[in-house]
């Protein structure tokens, strides 16, 4: 079992445990804000299921129907996570309004607050694991899940502070107001997750830093070529697709040109993990005298 799938399964277990703790905290206190916090955790569980499926599908090798692999499945999962987050914010707003109108009473419970704090601590630890693993393995789904958990932790801490203020001041209306703020935070998180994921689905280019590294590898390892131009990149999960035109002297043999391409591809592969390089070789009369000049 791959590391990414193992971490995704771990997220599901953490989400279920956290949901149980948060709902228990709500049951002890009757706080709408704590209920909103627990409701958001339901989305954690649903997003974990989507992440498990996406990571499993993305790990499948390329086939005749998907010659470029299945890596983009993770972007679809991340978009789904974003949609679920937005839907949970709508549910939170609904619960907030009902609580505000009915003037529900919050009951102070040290145990309830402590249980919710424990759930927040668990999520904080696991969010760190998800984001680090997502960056290391270039997994959009794991990173999206981790960002969602970070927002969940911020929400939990804010709610805990707010419920404490409710019990100290006796101002019961503060509880649904806090729940509404939780909903806004959840909504903003969902929008951010969807925005980042849609960029991947739209074949967003690699960062300028990565493109600069690619240019440097072409300059430093393209001995025998003249120039390179029309560099293009696109991201697809853990894979970075790279293609460009490499201009060589007209009298150069096919074997010699192929050797240059192999050398450049190998250098780029060492610098950019997951690189998939395509090079179009051109004779010198095709030179544009711009782009990347080979040293």
Number of domains: 2
- Cα shape: elongated
Number of strands: 4
Q: What is the H/E order?
A: HHHHHHHEEHEE
CATH architecture of the largest domain: Up-down Bundle
Kindly report how far apart the N and C termini lie: 45 Å
| Beta fraction | 5-15%
Fraction of residues in H or I helices:
55-70%
Main sheet properties: 4 strands, mixed
Structural class determined from secondary elements: alpha+beta
Number of helices: 8
Question: What brief labels describe this structure?
Answer:
295 residues; alpha+beta; Alpha-Beta Plaits; 2 domains; elongated; transmembrane helix; membrane; transport; cadmium ion transmembrane transporter activity
Describe it.
The chain is of the alpha+beta class and 295 residues long. The protein folds into two domains: 199 residues, Alpha-lytic protease prodomain-like (Up-down Bundle), CATH 1.20.1510; 86 residues, 2-Layer Sandwich (Alpha-Beta Plaits), CATH 3.30.70.1350. It contains eight helices and four strands. It has a four-stranded mixed sheet, with helices on one face. Helix 8 links the parallel strand 2 and strand 3. Helix 5 packs antiparallel against helix 6. The radius of gyration is 25 Å and the shape is elongated. It starts with a helix and ends with a strand. The model has no long low-confidence stretch (mean pLDDT 80). This is Protein p34. It holds the Pfam family Cation_efflux. Belongs to the cation diffusion facilitator (CDF) transporter (TC 2.A.4) family. Its main location: membrane. It is found in: Cell membrane.
